[in-house]
Amino acid sequence: MSENYNVNRVSLSDRRQIEKIKELLKGEGIRLDPNLDYLCAAEDEDYELAGCAGAFKNTLRCFAVRSDLRGQGIMNLLLSHLLQMQAQRGNMHLFVYTKAQTAGFFKDCGFYEIERIEGKLSFLENKRKGLESWIRDTAAKLPAGEKTALVMNCNPFTLGHRHLIEKAAENSEKTVVFVLSEDAGPIPFAVRLRLVQEGVKDMPGVTVIPSGPYMISSATFPSYFQKDEDDVVLGHALLDALIFEKIAKGLDISARFVGDEPFSRTTALYNGVLKENLPPRGVKLFEIPRFGIPEPVSASRVRELLKEEDFGALSSLVPPTTLDFFRSEEARPVMKAIKACEDLRHH
């Protein structure tokens, strides 16, 4: 029974144990999530691997139990271990990504399904009506009436982002910019949010707020369920569309604006899923050509120039408020983090 198993943290540098876990996950048709910041394993008295589970920030993922050991309470042990770890981290609002067919286990353990991709993925949380509460609280911060919206990373805020917001604002008296709350790169969320807020102060009718936990970033969305990169993008976009439909209804959002990326297959796939799924659900989708002088402005290019401290070149790619911040003393820790980041393309 479950008392014959112990659950312990696994070092992400323990190659021997990681290989065992990868084999266990492979048997379940999933891969080890590359974004994990915590991993644990259940072992029997002979230190044989019986199950595993992991976490990334306040999300739980990568649950697996050996097929011949199911029904012995190992999943409960793994979940209890992660709940205790998250409590120690101070994370009380938790989310779970799991296969659709295993969602029932988590529901029995006090989780509630937010949305699912039928036959593939279930997204749950441990807060009853959490999304409804978030929508109600967010609505109180926004002006009443019909709105357009954008969901942006702004890592950092560029003239390309500002151009996209301008286009949305031209089509509505009220525009909401949701800045993705996830800290997944060298520029902290608080800085990204502030630069957007300062960069659109002169634009009437534009409100900039955090995205909260229900608009899922590419860093948070799990890749381990999908067979290849295209499948990851398609799954992420579909879950985004399904949840955004509920948010749009609650916040009176009639249209969402996205920017195209002429050289990005990933963005084309993502936008294609939104185009296919949002309009039939009552949310118009406008894809705006990227602002270019002469080439489209890229946030990754801006980060590369920041790494080089080429402020002359940056002046034509970012608003003055963004440029002023990165030239300030306050930005030194952020600049240090950018310079320490080896691959700036995906952050």
Tell me the total number of β-strands: 12
Beta percentage is: 15-25%
| Tertiary shape | globular
Gyration radius from CA atoms, angstroms = 22 Å
**What do we call the CATH homologous superfamily of the largest domain?**
HUPs
Across the major sheet, the strand order is 1-2-3-4-5-7-6
Number of domains in the coordinates?
2
Q: Secondary-structure element sequence?
A: EHEEEHEHEEHEHEHEHEHEHHHH
CATH topology of the largest domain: Rossmann fold
> What is the SS-derived class?
alpha/beta
CATH class of the largest domain: Alpha Beta
User: Quick one: biggest sheet?
Assistant: 7 strands, mixed
Q: What count of helical segments does DSSP give?
A: 12
Query: What would you say the CATH architecture of the largest domain is?
Result: 3-Layer(aba) Sandwich
Mean pLDDT, nearest integer? 91
Low-confidence stretches: none
